[in-house]
């Protein structure tokens, strides 16, 4: 009986030893957290007026990508997003199948920056429906896009914008959008 008890005690001690070795020590945990934080892109400081309210951050989103042909203020753009933010465009291919493209705000800058240098682009919200619970908000924002500020819209659609308030300011978590097409008209309730 003593032999069995000794074997069981030995197994328990071995298991505890392995568990302790597998569990990171407090210093290792802190180092892992610092490494994860360092891997996140640095976020420029936001203009307080851009992030003080839901309406302000949505307006800042439209404002920062809009303008005549030329460079955009990408630091201001990036200051609106959490480090892990995603932007996703969905649409329909010519063959009738649906597709999407998902990218980070940095990838959006890289993809759109060259276009903005050559082309005027003005986008503005024409109708927003806002839902909020606690620190989260969802903005269903109907938009129009123009090549000139006072020009005719060449595109319309809806941005689904998810926001987070950290107790100090609003942040964009994600944006998903789809464009209006003949088979995908914007419902009248989102145009009022």
Largest sheet: 6 strands, mixed
Name the structural class.
alpha+beta
Give the ordered list of helices and strands: HHHHHEEHEEEE
Count the beta strands: 6
Give the CA-CA distance, first to last residue. 83 Å
Which labels suit this protein?
Nuclear Transport Factor 2, Chain: A; disordered N terminus; alpha+beta; 6 strands; 192 residues
Structural overview:
It is a single chain. This protein is an alpha+beta fold. It folds into 2 domains: 2-39; 48-190, Nuclear Transport Factor 2, Chain: A (Roll), CATH 3.10.450.50. Helices cover 36% and strands 32% of the residues. The protein has 6 helices and 6 strands, in the order αααααββαββββ. Strands 2-1-6-5-4-3 form a 6-stranded mixed beta sheet. The longest helix is centred in the first third of the chain and has 21 residues, at 2-22. The protein is globular, with a radius of gyration of 25 Å. Mean pLDDT is 87; it is low at 1-20.
Summarize the structure.
The protein is α+β, with helices and mostly antiparallel strands.
Any chance you could write out the topology, listing elements then pairs?
Blueprint: H1 2-22, H2 26-39, H3 48-51, H4 54-65, H5 74-78, E1 81-92, E2 98-103, H6 105-118, E3 122-133, E4 136-146, E5 155-165, E6 170-179
Parallel strand pairs: 1-6
Antiparallel strand pairs: 1-2, 3-4, 4-5, 5-6
